[in-house]
Amino acid sequence: MQAPNLVYRKFQAARDAAQGFKGQWQQFSKRFIDCLEQTQKAGQVKADFLQQCKADIAALHSSLEEALQALNARLDSPLLTLATTGTTSSGKSTLVNFLCGAELVPVAVSEMSAGTVTLEDGDVPSLTIEATPGALWECGTWENISAATIYDKLEEAMVQYLDTKDTNPSLAPPKANITYPIQFLRQHRHQLGLPFGTRVQLLDLPGFAYVGDERNAQIIREQCRQALCLVTYNSAETDAKKTEQLLEEVVIQVKNLGGSPARMLFVLNRIDVFQEDRDPQKSEQRFVSKTVGQIKAKLKEKLPEHEEAIETLKVLKLSARAALYSQLIQQSVGEERAKICERAEEQHKALIGEDLLEELPRNPAKWTDHDCQRVAESLWANSYGQELFKELVEQIQQHFAELVIPQIVVDFNKGAANKVLEWCTQEVDAICNSIEEKYRQECERLEETGVQLSEKLQQAGKNLKVPFEEMKELITSHSPITNHSIVLLESIMFEFIGNKEQTECEPEVDDNDDDEWSDKIRQWRDKIQQWHSQVDDEWRDKIKLDDEILPLIYTWRREVFISIEQLLEQVYLSIQGGKVDFSADVNLKQLPPPDQKYVQELEETLREFIEFIKAIGYNCADVAKQGMTIRQETQGDFKIIYFQSIIKNIQKRLSEVIEVLVKSVLAREQGPIYDVVSLLFRNHLEYLQESAQRIAPELGIQFPMSTLSQVQKELNWDISLEKAFSPEAKEATWTAIETRKTRPWWLLRLIEIETKVTVQKSGLELEVPSMEKLCEDWIAACKERVEEYLVPAYLDWFIEQTDLLTEQANEYQQAVLERYRSKLSECRQALSIDYETRKQFWEPMRTSVAELEQERPSWDKIKQSENAGVTSIDLNAETSSV
Length: 882
Known about the structure:
By secondary structure, the protein is of the alpha/beta class. The chain folds into four domains: 6-76 and 412-447 and 833-881, no CATH class; 79-396, P-loop containing nucleotide triphosphate hydrolases (Rossmann fold, 3-Layer(aba) Sandwich), CATH 3.40.50; 448-725 and 769-830, no CATH class; 730-768, no CATH class. 63% of the residues lie in helices and 10% in strands. It is built from 29 helices and twelve strands. It has a nine-stranded mixed beta sheet with strand order 4-3-5-2-6-1-7-8-9. β7, α7 and β8 (264-269) form a beta-alpha-beta unit. It is flat and about 145 Å long. It starts with 5 loop residues before the first helix and ends with a helix. Residues 436-463 form a coiled coil. It is found in: Membrane.
C-alpha cells in the first residue's frame, strides 16, 4: 500500500497532536481527582474544595473540547490561496484564466487589470461586483452565468474605471468575487491530497496601486502572507532599459507580497516569443539563463535576508495563452471551438507546428474532432503548461501545511491548552505548598518572586531599547545630521545588537563632521559598549539576529534615498532631453491613482520650464549641464520674475511628488520592518519565559507569543520638504555685443550696412546653476529632511513598541502570579495534608504535569513526527470520497 500523502499526513498529525493532549489531560484530571478523593478520605480536604476542583476541571474539559472542535473544523476546511501578480504586460490575467480553464478575467494589449479579483472554486458559476464608493459601473450579484458573461461584466467595470481614474483620482477601483470550477484544482485534487473540505481561491492582484485604500491594501497583504504566489515576468520585452524596469517591478511585487520567495513561483510567460528565431531552443535557453540570473541577483541585492531561498528559486517557462487555448479547444464544440482554433492558429502557429498545419484543412472550421485534439495536444506539449501544473502541485504539497497549520495550533494552545497547563501547574504546586511550614515559606517566596519577575522583565525591556534611546538622544542634539553619521551610528549599534566580535578601533568620521560631533559619536560608542558588557549574556545570545535579517530594521532609508535619486534623475534627463518622460521610474508607477495627479502636475510644470529655456534662446542640454545666466534690462522685461515663479512651482510640485513617493516606498518597506521587529520581540519573549520558568516554575507562565510579539501601533511616516533653491537676482553690469544698422554719408546714405559694437549694459542678473547641481542640492535637502524627521520618528516608534511589550508582558505575568497566590490561599484554607500524603500523592503529580506539558501541540513537533498521519486504509477512505 502507498504511504499517505504528505499534506494529508501533516494535517492528520495536527489532529493527532491535539487529540493526544486531550487524552493526556483526561488521564491527568482523573488521577488528580483520585488523589484528591484519597486525601479527602484521610480527612485532609474540605468537601467544597473537592467540588470546586471538579467544577474547574469540567470547565477546562469544556474549553478544551471547544478548542479541539474549532481546530478540527479549521483543519477540515482550510483555505488555500494562490496569489498572482506580475510585471507590466506579463500575461498575469491569462495565467489566471489558464488555472481556471476558462476566459474569465479580461485581457488586452494595453494594461487591463484594475481592482482585485478573487476567484473561489465552486460548482455554480457566479459573479459579484461590490458596490465600491463612487462606482460608475454595474454592481451586484449574478448567479449561474456563463464564463463569457463574467468576462463581459468584468471588462465593462474595468474599462469604465481605467477611463475615469485620471479625471477622478478618488474613485475606488472595482472589486469582484467570482465562483467557478477551477480546472487546475479539479484535475489535481487527488495528487494534492488536500483535506476534503479545503477551500481554494485565486487572488488576482493588479498591483498595490490599484487595490483601493490603505486598509484594503493591508488586508490583501495579510492574505498574501498566507498564500502561495505566482509572479509573472514578460519574456517578450527585450529593450535593456525596460528589462531593468521589469527587474525592479519584480522586487516591488515580491516585497508587496511579503514573506519568503521560497513560496513563490516565478513564471517567464510569453516564452513562445522566441519561436520566430532561427534557433528557437538556443535563444530560449540563453534568455532563460540570463533572466534567471538577473532576477536572482536583483532579489539578493534588495532582499539579502532571503539569499538562501533565492538561490533555489523556482523559475518556470510558460506560454499561458497557448496552454489556455489547448484547454478551451478540448472543452468546446462546434462554432465556439472553431473560433478558438482560428485564434490559436493565428497566434501560435509555431507551437502547433508547420508539419501538423500542412496536414490540416486551411480553414479551422473544417477541422475534425481528431484534428482539434491533435492541435490541442501540440499546444499543450509546447506551452510548458504541464510543467507549471506539476511544479505548482509540488509547491502546494511542500508549503500549504506550513502556511495553514501553525496558526491553527497556536490558536488551540491559546484557547485551551495553555489554560489547562497553567491550572495544572498552579493547582499541584499550591497543594504541595499548603502545608503550614511550606505555606509560610511559599508566601514569602511569592513576594520575592513577584519582585524578581518584574525586575527581570523591566531590565530586559531596558536592554532592548537602550541603544535606540541613546541614538535618538544623540541625533536630536546635533544638527544637521549627515547620512554618513547615521550610517556610522547604525553600524556601531547593530554591531552590538548583532552580538558581533567587538573591536577597539576608532569609529571613522567624515571630513565634514566637526570635532564636537566626532567626540559625541565616540562617547556614544563608549556608552553602548558599556551597556553591552553589562547585559545578561543569555539575553544577548537569545535576541541576536542573523546578519541578513538585522539590517531590515534600518534598510528602509536606503530604499527611500534610491527612490528620491531616481525621481530627480528623471527630472534631470527630462530637462536635458527637452522632453518630459518619467516612464523609466518604476516607483512612480506604483503610486495609487489619487497620487498620480501630483506626478502629472510636476510633468506639466517641467514642460513649461523647458519651453521657457527654449524661448530665451538656450539649449536644454547646455542648461542641464552648465546652467544659464538670465538678464533683465528694463522694467518691462519679466524673464527673471517668470523664471523665479517657474522654479518655485517646480519645487512645490517636486515636494508633493516626493512626499507621496516616500510614503509609498515606506508602506512597501513596513512589512519587512514589522517582520524583523516581531522576530526580535519573539526572541525577547522566549528569554523572558525561560527566565520566568526558572524563577517560578510553579506559575506555569506561557506568554501568548503570537499576540505580544506583534506590532501594536502602526508606523506613521510623515515628511514635509522645504525648498532647496531660492534664486535671487542682483544688480549687475555686463558687456554685450550689439548689431547696429547705419547708412554712412560717404555712401550717400543709399546703402544700409551692419556693424557689431561692444556696449555696456546694466540691470538685473540671475546666475542659474546647472540642473545637475540643482538636482544634487534637492537630493541632499530631501535626505537631510529624512534624517531630521523620519529617523527620530522611527526610533520613537521602536521605543514605544518596546515599552508596550514590556507593559503587556508584565500585566500578563502579574495576572498569573495573582492567580497562583489565590490558589495557594484557597488550598491553605481547604487542605490540611501531612507530609506523608504530600509525598505519596501530590509530589508524583508534578511528574504528571511535566508529561502533560510534553504533549502540548506545536508545529515543530508535527514536522518532526515520523509516524504522522493515518493508515493507508483511512487515507483511501478519504480520497475515495474526494
